[in-house]
């Protein structure tokens, strides 16, 4: 067999391996979406993450470890997302040198039912965002090692994103606000301000004073409303008061 044919066969094998990997990663994304659409089923979600995986999203917090990713997402569904239909659109895969890991990007368009921030009643929402993800090949299977969901909007279907891009911030959920780099903001710490989440001077001469802060980059940030965040003034998901139930993964004891 000539060197030219051998080279062509090698190139074809590499192309087939690339296509197979892309197909497997696409299947991973769809499997994740289907698990999310049945209440973030942790039994279905857990096999999709590496043991050292992370999942993060502004307003929902960060989960570290495969178990925490599965159980944290389940807890989020119980607290905030009562029904969903995920549309994962146009995944773009870029393989690392060696082909054992890859960076993946895709768009999210989601129909969901969320509790109204004031009444607690079910409300129809449109959610739009993007996923920035790292995947790793483990024992022949592609798994999520890092997942970051970046929300661009979460708006009531009855109002639309022009009138209301985000839910109203409250003591039970964060305030999504556009902040500019180079400006100083004053976060209300006393909870009395009428211009939440920013100070309007309502604290008066009290001991609780506003917190000055700035941001490194211009963009949309989730600012703490519950005042329990460990990363104040920015939200870390503490308002969800999540309870991880290890028994959902067939493990004894909860945390």
How is this fold's topology laid out?
Layout: H1 3-36, H2 42-45, E1 49-57, E2 61-64, H3 66-79, E3 83-95, E4 101-115, E5 122-138, E6 141-156, E7 175-179, E8 185-187, E9 211-213, E10 219-223
Low-pLDDT stretches are none
**What is the mean pLDDT?**
93
Binned, the helix content reads 10-25%
With helices defined by DSSP (H or I, 4 residues minimum), what is the helix count? 3
Secondary structure: number of strands: 10
Reported by name, the CATH topology of the largest domain is Nuclear Transport Factor 2, Chain: A
Q: Helix/strand/pairing class, anyone?
A: alpha+beta
Shape: elongated
Q: What is the CATH class name of the largest domain?
A: Alpha Beta
CATH architecture descriptor name of the largest domain = Roll
Rg from C-alpha positions?
22 Å
Indicate how many domains the architecture comprises. 2
**Strand-and-helix sequence, N→C?**
HHEEHEEEEEEEE
- As laid out across the biggest beta sheet, the strand order is 2-1-6-5-4-3
Approximate strand percentage: 35-45%
């Amino acid at each position: 067999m000539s060197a030219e044919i051998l080279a062509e066969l090698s190139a074809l094998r590499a192309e087939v391996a690339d296509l197979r990997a892309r197909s497997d990663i696409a299947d991973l994304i769809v499997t994740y979406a289907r698990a999310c659409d049945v209440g973030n089923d942790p039994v279905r979600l857990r096999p999709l993450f590496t043991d050292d995986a992370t999942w993060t999203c502004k307003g929902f917090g960060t989960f570290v470890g495969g178990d925490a990713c599965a159980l944290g997402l389940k807890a989020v569904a119980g607290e905030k997302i009562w029904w969903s239909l995920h549309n994962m659109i146009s995944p773009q895969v870029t393989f690392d040198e060696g082909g054992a890991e890859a960076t993946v990007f895709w768009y999210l368009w989601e129909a969901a039912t969320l509790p109204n921030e004031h009444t607690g009643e079910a409300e129809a929402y449109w959610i739009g965002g993007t996923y920035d993800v790292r995947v790793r090949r483990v024992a022949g299977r592609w798994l999520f090692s890092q997942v970051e969901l970046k929300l661009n909007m979460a708006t009531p279907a009855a109002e639309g994103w022009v009138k209301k891009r985000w839910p109203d911030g409250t003591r039970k959920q964060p305030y999504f606000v556009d902040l500019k780099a180079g400006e100083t903001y004053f976060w209300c710490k006393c909870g009395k301000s009428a211009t939440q989440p920013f100070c309007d001077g309502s604290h008066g001469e009290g001991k609780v004073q506003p917190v000055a802060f700035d941001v490194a980059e211009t963009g949309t940030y989730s600012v703490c409303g519950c005042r329990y965040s460990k990363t104040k003034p920015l939200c870390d998901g503490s308002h969800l008061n999540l309870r991880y139930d290890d028994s959902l993964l067939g493990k004894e004891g909860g945390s």
